[in-house]
Amino acid sequence: MLLRRSVLPVLIATGASVGLGACREAPVYESTGGQFPGRGDMADREALIRRAAAAQGGWTIVPVRYGLLRGTNAWRSHQMTVDIAFDVRTFSIRYVSSVNLDYNGAQIHSAYNDKVRALEAAILRGG
């Protein structure tokens, strides 16, 4: 009986910590159909995306092809890479790869989603 009483709190604490760790994972967020503010051509849109990424910090943006940029953000032992597709009116941000963000094909650490949403918001604000 005494053994059960001493083991039960340990089991409850262990279960709670496992449950809390799982709360940090969420479905991968993809920004689709974002509308650029104001008017602009493709060069203006690329410049806006670059300004937005610079304002968020940690992002490196490289061109892949016309209308497609690849963004990488690295912090501590984590890294994430996204593709930012755009035309003169809209943009989307899609997952490419990650390191140490517990991606399992459908879910990822919430820090990934936080950074994608922050980038998306900065683009929508106009950089």
Descriptive labels:
127 residues; five-stranded antiparallel sheet; 3 helices; 7 strands; globular
| Poorly predicted sequence stretches spanning 5 or more consecutive residues | 7-22
The overall pLDDT, averaged over residues, is 87
Give the terminus-to-terminus CA distance: 64 Å
In which order are the strands of the major sheet placed? 2-6-5-4-3
Roughly what fraction of the amino acids lie in strands? Answer: 35-45%
Q: Report the structural category.
A: alpha+beta
Provide a count of the helices: 3
Order of helices and strands: HEEHEEEEEH
CATH class category:
Alpha Beta
- CATH second-level architecture: 2-Layer Sandwich
Helix content: 40-55%
Give the overall silhouette. globular
State the major sheet: 5 strands, antiparallel
Domain count: the total is: 1
The number of strands is 7
CATH topology: TATA-Binding Protein
Structure description:
The protein has helices at residues 2-22, 42-56, 110-124, and strands at residues 25-27, 31-35, 59-65, 68-75, 78-86, 90-99, 107-109. The longest helix has 21 residues, at 2-22. It has one domain: TATA-Binding Protein (2-Layer Sandwich), CATH 3.30.310. With 127 residues, the protein is an alpha+beta fold. The chain has three helices and seven strands; from the N terminus they run αββαβββββα. The model is unreliable at 7-22 (pLDDT under 50). α2 (42-56) packs across α3 (110-124).
